[in-house]
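A favour, since you know our structure tokens better than I do. Could you add the entry underneath, on a fresh line?
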Amino acid sequence: MTRGPAVRGRVTAVSSNGEYAFTKPNRDSITLLAGLGVEGDVHAGVTVRHRSRVAQDPTQPNLRQVHLIHEELFAEVGAAGFEVTPGDLGENITTLGIDLLGLPVGAVLRIGGSAVLEVTGLRNPCLQIDNFRDGLLKQVVGRDETGNIVRKAGIMSVVRDGGVVRPGDPIEVELPAGPHRPLERV
């Protein structure tokens, strides 16, 4: 890892759900477990837990243990008439002040006193988003000026070091040694 100027942000909300559901209720805190994900969350585990991926191959590694979304997205979709609040899109950690989508694969997020996440890729939003708010999918997935797909519904990560995460906790970003690989869907 390289340590350039520290990029800092903070946690604005934490959410988890022990049952399969699109949204996740906000919590006072969540506990991250190394190599597993969020304690008590339906998506925690060494192998993949997302239903569509389990159907494809239940033995594949879980690169989607913890889902993060930048709170700035809520203002962006709000300007288009969509009310979205922390946990609504199924994220575990809502952040502020970090360009999550601009991070490279392998970036490390140090959160609070001991939790460490490694970024694995982009969330690939699905039609469930339109079931939540009709038309929202077009706000979080689109195309850039050259026709490339742009996904804005957050990033996925794995837990390197466990710990308790609470709203207000600081987040420090460490970038991997270059060259950096841009995030792709996982």
Residues 72-79 form the longest helix (8 residues). The chain has a mean pLDDT of 93. The first strand starts at residue 2 and ends at 15. Residues 2-175 form a domain with the M1 Pyruvate Kinase; Domain 3 fold (CATH 2.40.33.20).
